[in-house]
Amino acid sequence: MSLTKTSSDFIAEIEALYSRWGSNKYDEQISQIEHAVQCAEFARHAEADDELIVATLLHDIGHLLELEQKDGNPNLNKNDEHESSGAAYLARHFSSAVTAPIALHVEAKRFLCTTEETYFAQLSPASVRSLELQGGKMSASEVERFAKHPASERAVALRRWDELGKSLEPSGLTFLDFRDYLRRCLTN
Ligand SMILES: [Fe+2]
Ligand SMILES: [Fe+2]
Q: What are phi and psi of 186, to 5 degrees?
């Protein structure tokens, strides 16, 4: 993918990425685009700040980057580390208020599976499969380190919406419904 020069180009680049690969289901039953807008809508209903709404919308963009790089054929048996690739990509034009919860959303799943007895049962089959590749439950020291991270609460909030945004009923929302949020969160 080419490097962009301006922030408005960057939004166009993100929208193009979702229009090319957003119908892909990756390893879930729901398409990437529908998952993104459903999750973001939960964040909007909860009156999250703009940055957290954008983080929730784009939290799985690393999967789309992987699809782009692998021409639609990602290796699902390997951890694609999409939380890191997505956060690094977005850091070009978004602040850590957007990128940190994204970078931590997999750790937040491991944290919640470790600290809340009922959480594991909420995971989709694909999320259960990826949990093992992502390191499974946390050790006590990992739990402690995660809880101390300044963005851990935002990452946990994002993660709860991530689990909710997997309805097979179409939401009627589109990516463009969130363009103003994207614009407001650009840093340069
Ligand atoms: Fe994810
Ligand atoms: Fe997700």
A: -60, 140
The C-alpha R_g of the chain, in whole angstroms, comes to 16
Q: Which residues surround ligand 1, an ion (CB under 5 A)?
A: 60
CA 156 to ligand 2 center in whole angstroms: 12
79 inside domain: yes
What confidence tens digit (pLDDT) does each residue in 102-154 have? 999 999 999 999 999 999 999 999 999 999 999 999 999 999 999 999 999 99
Rounded distance from Cα 59 to ligand 1 centre (Å): 6
Q: Is residue 1 part of a domain?
A: no
In whole angstroms, give the CA distance from residue 188 to residue 92. Answer: 9
Cα(105) to ligand 1 centroid in Å equals: 7
Instruction: Provide the residue range defining the domain that includes 146.
Output: 7-185
Instruction: Count up the domains in the chain and report the number.
Output: 1
Give domain status of residue 150, yes or no.
Answer: yes
